[in-house]
Write a structure and sequence with these properties.
Blueprint lengths: L15 H15 L1 H15 L5 H14 L2 H4 L8 H26 L7 H29 L1 H4 L1
Helix pairs in contact: 1-5, 2-3, 5-6
């Protein structure tokens, strides 16, 4: 303890160390915000929708928000147990993406949220590219069998 009653190694409020700590602590949960926004967009697009364009946009928003649903086979079946597992898997995926983005962003001693979102975007684009490739492969191999 020093004269001021604080630990000498404590971070200065709003200083670089404190900011890095906040990014690492809050970053995994911040990664859920874009997925939640996409889920809200999907819900608005799919509720009472009768147009093809709204259905395609809504499905794309669902697939990008919760890629675990595709792994659970949700476009082909609608079992509630599979839906739950797909959503939980997607939440875990986005939390891991948030952890990785926060770790990569805070490698710099003077990390800011812009660094976090830049790292997050690179990782999210990779996840979304995987979703697009998965949907394309599903259409290629399973699509003709359904017709």
């Amino acid at each position: 303890m020093n004269i001021a009653g604080t630990h000498p190694r404590a971070a200065v409020p709003l200083g670089p160390r404190d900011f890095r700590y906040r990014i690492r602590r809050i970053g995994p949960f911040a990664a859920l915000l874009p997925a939640c926004a996409l889920a809200i967009v999907a819900t608005m697009m799919l509720r009472g929708n009768t147009s093809t364009a709204g259905g395609v946009v809504g499905f794309a928003a669902v697939a990008f928000a919760a890629p675990g649903l595709l792994v659970a086979g949700i476009p082909l079946t609608a079992e509630s147990g599979r839906t739950f597992l797909g959503v939980v898997g997607s939440v875990v995926l986005w939390l891991v993406v948030g952890i990785l983005a926060s770790r990569r962003a805070t490698r710099s001693p003077v990390a800011i949220w812009r660094d976090y979102w830049r790292e997050y975007l690179w990782l999210a684009v990779g996840v979304w590219a995987g979703v697009v490739m998965g949907l394309a492969l599903t259409e290629l191999f399973v699509g003709p069998a359904l017709l």
